[in-house]
Amino acid sequence: MHVTCTRCAKSSESFDPPAWPEGWEGSVSEAVCPGCQYVEWHPLCEGIVDFGGRRVDLSVIARDEIDPNRLSRCEYLDLTVAWIGDDRPHKWRCPKCGCTEFVGVHPDYPRSGLTGGTLFSAEIDEIDESE
Known about the structure:
single chain, mainly beta, 2 domains, two-stranded antiparallel ribbon, two-stranded antiparallel sheet, 6 strands
């Protein structure tokens, strides 16, 4: 099997799944070769927020009052702060929720898409069969 880098169109050497070509990242549909991988890291907020995006301190809420369906991670990716190697910032505050907990990710890190809560709603219109 071969994969193609989505950034430079370079093709990988042949490999047998589930192994992955040495140094490559991503998925079969969005592979990135070692030469195109980002070097810099950015903070990704790990703060817990409610459905409205407000920060939630779980240490002050009784366990039986916590509704996990109304909470998610903030996941704000701050591209204004960057570092390379071990020069991670010691202090950082999320501009969105104010949390100071973060992990370092590359700018192309795929976020969950659950920011703002895990619930959703949809309206279904009746289908007019005469059309």
